[in-house]
Amino acid sequence: MYKRNCLGGGARIAPLRGSLGFTLIELMVTVAIIGILASIALPSYQQYVKRGRIADALATLGPMQAKLEQLFLDNRSYATACGTNALALKPPDTRYFVYTCPTLESTSYKVTATGQGPMIGFAYSLSLAGGVVSKSTDSVPAGWTKTGSCWVTKEDGSC
Q1: Is residue 157 situated within a structural domain?
Q2: Is residue 13 included in any domain, yes or no?
Q3: Are 141 and 122 in contact (CB under 8 A)?
Q4: How many domains does the chain have?
Q5: Where are the alpha helices (H) located in 22-94, listed in sequence order?
Q6: DSSP state, residue 17
Q7: Which residue pairs from 95-100 have beta carbons closer than 8 angstroms and sit at least 24 positions apart in sequence?
Q8: Can you tell me the distance from the alpha carbon of 5 to that of 35, in angstroms, rounded to the nearest whole number?
């Protein structure tokens, strides 16, 4: 990298012209920039992934509702929908949500999607009471805002 300059009798060392490679400062600046970008991007990505998992859970509640309505047309009651002789109402539990139908009466129902694993703290429901179908967010984890009668899909409480 360096060559001796023997002209003039001195023992001075001069850098070679056209050296290749990066200096330590350049590498440190690059690592710092990558670290800053990662610290900004990672939380946004994690929220994006959560919103996708929530959308999957909510999309599963719709077919449950359709199966309940079909059961009501066939039997004139929702009461036996989650029993042992019921249609295949309940979808298989997923890695992130467990689906249940805790409240079933002859003319009303409530089906829920409850978070598990990384989605713990989330609970959504779809219910029919008095002929009115309602969607609600039963719980959200700390840091999320829970609003009225809608399915919260974003951290700020928007539906």
Answers
A1: no
A2: no
A3: yes
A4: 1
A5: 24-75
A6: T
A7: 96/53, 96/56, 96/57, 97/53, 97/56, 97/57, 97/60, 97/122, 99/60, 99/61, 99/64
A8: 42
pTM above 0.85, yes or no: no
**Amino acid letter at 33?**
I
- Non-local (6+) Cβ contacts of 2 within 8 A are 13, 14, 15, 16
Longest Cα–Cα distance in the chain: 109
pLDDT average per 10 residues of sequence, the chain (159 residues)? 54 63 89 92 88 90 86 82 61 84 82 92 90 90 83 84
What are the residues whose beta carbons fall under 8 Å from the beta carbon of 14, sequence distance 6 or more? 2, 3, 5
Give the amino acid at 10. Answer: G
Question: What domain range is 85 assigned to?
Answer: 23-139
Cα gap 52→140, rounded to integer Å: 15
How far separated are the first and last CA of the chain, in Å rounded?
Answer: 63
Question: What Rg do the C-alpha atoms of the chain give, in angstroms?
Answer: 30
Tokens standing for 94? 């997923």
DSSP letter, residue 147: -
* 126 located within any domain: yes
Domain assignment present for residue 6? The answer is no
